[in-house]
Amino acid sequence: MASGGRGVQRVLVKLERSIQEGNYYEAHQMYRTLYFRYNAQKRYTEAADLLYTGALTLLNAGQQQSGVDLAMLFIDTLEKAADSVSEDSIKKVCKLHELVDPDIQERANLVTAAIKWSRKGAREMLSGHPSLHQQLAVTLWHEKNYSQARYHFLNSSDGEGCAAMLIEYHVTLGYPSEVDLFITQAVLQYLCHRNKPTAERCLNCYTKQHPQVEPGPPYYRPLLNFLWLLLLAVEGGKVAVFTILCEQYQPSLQRDPTYNEYLDKIGQLFFGLPPPAKPQSSRLFGK
């Protein structure tokens, strides 16, 4: 890393000494000093390298607050830089996220900042870069934070990973009667995100790998059959098939009041149906 002058070089030497001596407070302040100098000169690449190294060092040393502070500055620097979002920068952000204590509020702030940065230059990524969401999801899954992992998987393109997580989630915390509910909401939400390929992969992996799901299709459980047929209907694009399918499976769809809301949106996205006539009731197929 270029030093950028004798003054910066002196700070770098002092910084290294502080780290070796375990004087992390002083090290943190010097990281910030160097950051402001690089930032003022718009030397964002050097600033990002410095902040990432510093955040790693402090987080690995158990200095959570200081480490998160540098991690936030790292993301802020990535935001300012002219570089587009890359897999390498996503990997670094997710590594820092992994090292932050799950129980502190700053971790949520880090995720919010990371998602905002990952939208950079891509209008189609309003919810954040799929690769960022996928890596965040895996970390949260390993921490057994299934609900948050599910949220990030649904904003990724990793249908296989989502299915494996949902299986573990259901087997660990769900009831046997909910085996079809866990996958139904996920598939419908993927479709609401216009992500049909991932919806298909998620359903296929879930039904093939879940120990409580019989071979298919067709399936013994009506909702699993509905999902299989729904994906075929989306592929075909015929509104009559979609409408009849939703009407025929209403008894099963009524197990969760959100299903018909998702189907309203799917009808609009894939079949050109209008929004519900009455805003207070979005159930096109409800009774």
Automatic annotation (TrEMBL):
Determine if Lipoprotein is one of this entry's keywords.
Answer: no
- Report the leader peptide range: none
UniProtKB keywords: Cytoplasm, Transport
Q: Which InterPro entries match?
A: GET4, TPR-like_helical_dom_sf
PANTHER family, alphabetized: GOLGI TO ER TRAFFIC PROTEIN 4 HOMOLOG
Family, per the entry?
Belongs to the GET4 family.
| Protein name from the UniProt record | Golgi to ER traffic protein 4 homolog
Organism from which the protein derives: Paralvinella palmiformis
